[in-house]
Amino acid sequence: MDQNMGTFKCTGDRTYMADDSRFNYVTGETNDADTPAAWSFANAVNELAKFHYSSLNTDYLKAIIDSWKHPGCYGVISAHLGYRLYLTKAILPLSVTAGGEFCYHIEINNEGYAAPNKEMEAHLLLENTGNGTLYSVMVPGVEVRNWLPGNTQTLHGTAGVPAALPIGQYKVHLVILNKVLGKTTNILFLWQMQMASKTQQRV
Questions:
Q1: 126 and 46 in a common domain
Q2: Taking the model in full, what pTM does it have?
């Protein structure tokens, strides 16, 4: 059995790591140059995806890493390490009333090798295009660590708008926020809407 330089010693190790790595951070490095079949580009992509790699040591083995770079293969690998979130669909109103609510329907694909591995929150962020004022509302019930590769995630519900929010044009963003550090890690632009006064009708 291929032990992968000692990583997989027992029957079932590969299956265990494939399952366990769905929810844990995985990093590693290539085999040595004596196992060419293991570090072929096709096999490497398969292994990195199967074991949900988030990072790769590019210092070992440089000969192998360089062999991927020349034909452009490493660009494919680096573009998929970790999680890669892409907005595929967003349904939002063209205008809302200050003090009211608006409905949202958002679909996101993860095209990376791994799911996000930190506890994070999803927020809808309204950005006033005139003065840059920001208003954020948390999207409830979101567990980004379950956003596994190859799956479409759907967020839908209603969000309240403060009555004091100024009338104007607003960009709407979906923000993925690191819950512990309070830092924004991903911002996806969704839509632009008009904020109306209380006396105006919603479209």
A1: no
A2: 0.84
